[in-house]
Backbone:
């Protein structure tokens, strides 16, 4: 069967300058073999070492690329044209002569997609990125925008925007710096980046909402500088801490160290619930209370010590016994609860109220040389206290510190672990102890971890999924055990 | 030397500006033979490298085949290729050289067979052009005559 092979210009010297050669063969392979027999040198040009077609060579039978047919085994009919079509390619140089700002700016205007304030107001992108300097952001920003100053863009953007397919709109004050920023993001592989035309000015002039973010004062920036260096905290995290409201149940062995570190860390509002006065036997571990406050109110003593540590926070003393009647009011103003209580009645009460208000409860308890910490946060997964202990143990198996004694430094360890968990929850960083019970054996110097699961029969957790809240019960009767102190 | 009429250059210019900021590519068609190369018209081809079109092109071989066949039917031939450099000067980059047809055929070097016209586009407007041939594995500029 004879076919016609079309020869590209550079290879025509191999066949005496002809632009086409008639060959015999039932397939492309046979045709090429015959071509080689007639005019040596073609196969070395067309095929690779393994006998396949070189990557840049395309073979067409009439109008069809043989890669989409049967390759070299593609059959040929009489009169078919076999064309050799090399792929031509190239590209702009990597380096270029220096360009002026206005050349660069014009190039970017042509290259980087832009969006308008009106379009932005209509459809919010997944990520809105403010690349202005801190001083500019202080005057207001578009609500919900993430702030990375232009100078830190490349360093920080992968942490802030891990998804390179996310839709990103970048803005600056007037729309120029954001063009450069958007161009950089495109080079870093962000696929869907646009720059806001006219920047923040156009947004504000269009009457769109502006948010004046809470920013750190210079004094706060000095005080919390070691936090600001940690990417997981940073300025945004420190603002979260300063805006957080944490309620501590008990100003005792656990509450004292937890509160002290939370105050130092800059947790902005600390509520402390305790109805007791400082007793001499407390001083061995309750580090907020110095000796000269024996006989005075624990919450007042806690307030004085905490404000001496950090006058920049607010301490709210609640000098009352926590009961079914006041628990909803007490918890209502807070984001998070730290349970440092010493009795089961209070623990069940706090648990039930936290489930009702969908708040996380950082729980700690101690016995002589042993402590345990966990986070009950069933609204966001994991069990509640009742899943762990559907019923209180008999009093003789769970004695209070007053009955059993405790190593003074042990509640320090456990209370500080509670503070760590609280800070992680506020920042939204790390893995909270949700669904895990961390135990500490001081004598053996060992930490262990137990998995906790939600009890599918827990009526309180079921209330999170739409079942009615079972209500508060008479916790004293339920536990039939009076509390001592931690 | 590459000579081409203003009408052919206008076709190339229109293509390069329309596709800016992406690189465009196409073919120069004229009487068979060269050097010197004489193009009478230009014909567009698709740039298949859509992912990096801002600084790469890969000419669609199907478009090239169609151009070859149309040229042959008219007694003409593909005598060269053109492509644009958005926001870059008109020069033959290392990539242009490595992926030129003559260079890809490899050694022993084939004779310079085509003229390669490179068009610089700045901010959406053609800012200049130069032509090159590939000779013994290296690029050499050749003069361009318009008209």
Residues:
């Amino acid at each position: 069967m004879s076919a016609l092979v079309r020869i590209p210009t550079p290879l025509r010297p191999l066949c005496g300058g002809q632009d086409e050669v008639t060959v015999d063969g039932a397939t492309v392979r046979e045709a090429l073999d015959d071509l080689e027999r007639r005019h040596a040198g073609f196969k070395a040009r067309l095929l690779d070492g393994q006998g396949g077609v070189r990557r840049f060579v395309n073979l067409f039978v009439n109008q069809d690329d043989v890669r989409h047919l049967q390759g070299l085994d593609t059959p040929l009919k009489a009169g078919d044209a076999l064309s050799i079509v090399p792929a031509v390619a190239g590209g702009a140089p990597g380096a270029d002569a220096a360009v002026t700002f206005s050349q660069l700016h014009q190039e970017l205007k042509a290259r980087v997609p832009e969006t308008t304030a009106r379009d932005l107001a209509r459809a919010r992108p997944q990520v809105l990125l403010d690349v202005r300097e801190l001083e500019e952001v202080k005057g207001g920003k578009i609500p919900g925008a993430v702030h990375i100053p232009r100078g830190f863009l490349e360093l920080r953007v992968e942490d802030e925007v891990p998804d390179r397919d996310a839709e990103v709109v970048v803005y600056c004050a007037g729309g120029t710096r954001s063009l450069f920023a958007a161009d950089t993001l495109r080079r870093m592989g962000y696929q869907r980046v646009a720059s806001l035309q006219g920047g923040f000015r156009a947004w504000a002039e269009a009457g769109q909402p502006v948010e004046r973010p809470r920013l750190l004062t210079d004094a706060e920036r000095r005080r919390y500088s070691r936090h600001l260096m940690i990417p997981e905290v940073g300025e945004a995290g420190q603002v979260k801490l300063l805006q957080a409201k944490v309620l501590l149940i008990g100003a005792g062995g656990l509450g004292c160290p937890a509160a002290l570190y939370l105050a130092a860390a800059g947790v902005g509002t600390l509520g402390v619930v305790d109805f007791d006065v400082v007793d001499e036997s407390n001083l061995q571990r309750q580090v907020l209370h110095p000796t000269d406050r024996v006989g005075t109110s624990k919450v007042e003593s806690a307030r004085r010590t905490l404000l001496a540590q950090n006058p920049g926070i607010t301490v709210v003393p609640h000098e009352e016994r926590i009961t079914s009647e006041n628990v909803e009011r007490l918890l209502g103003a807070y984001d998070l609860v730290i349970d440092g209580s010493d009795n089961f009645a209070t623990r069940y009460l706090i648990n039930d109220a936290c489930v009702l208000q969908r708040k996380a409860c950082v729980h700690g308890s101690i016995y002589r040389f042993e402590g345990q910490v966990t986070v009950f946060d069933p609204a966001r997964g994991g069990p509640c206290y009742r899943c762990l202990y559907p019923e209180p143990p008999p009093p003789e198996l769970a004695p209070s510190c007053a009955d059993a004694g405790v190593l003074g430094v042990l509640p320090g360890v456990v209370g500080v672990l509670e503070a760590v968990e609280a800070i992680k929850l506020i920042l939204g960083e790390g893995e909270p102890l949700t669904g895990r019970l961390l135990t500490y054996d001081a004598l053996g110097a060992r930490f262990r971890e137990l998995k906790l699961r939600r009890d599918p029969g827990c009526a309180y957790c079921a209330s999170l999924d739409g079942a009615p809240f079972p209500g508060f019960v008479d916790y004293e009767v339920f536990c039939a055990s009076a509390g001592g102190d931690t | 030397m590459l000579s081409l009429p203003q009408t052919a250059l206008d076709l190339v210019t229109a293509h390069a500006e329309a596709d800016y900021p992406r690189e465009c590519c196409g073919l120069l068609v004229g009487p068979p033979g060269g050097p010197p190369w004489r193009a009478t018209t230009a014909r567009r081809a698709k740039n298949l490298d859509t992912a990096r079109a801002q600084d790469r092109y890969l000419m669609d071989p199907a478009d090239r085949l169609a151009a070859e066949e149309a040229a042959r039917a008219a007694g003409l031939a593909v005598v060269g290729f053109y492509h644009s450099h958005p926001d870059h000067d008109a020069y033959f980059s290392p990539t242009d050289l490595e992926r030129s047809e003559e260079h890809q055929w490899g050694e022993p070097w084939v004779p310079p067979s085509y003229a390669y016209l490179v068009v610089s586009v700045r901010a959406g407007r053609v800012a200049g052009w130069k032509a090159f041939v590939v000779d013994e594995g290296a690029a050499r500029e050749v003069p361009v005559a318009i008209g």
Observations:
- The domain at 244-479 of chain A is CATH 3.40.50.720 (Rossmann fold).
- Chain A has three domains: 2-86, 101-205, 244-479.
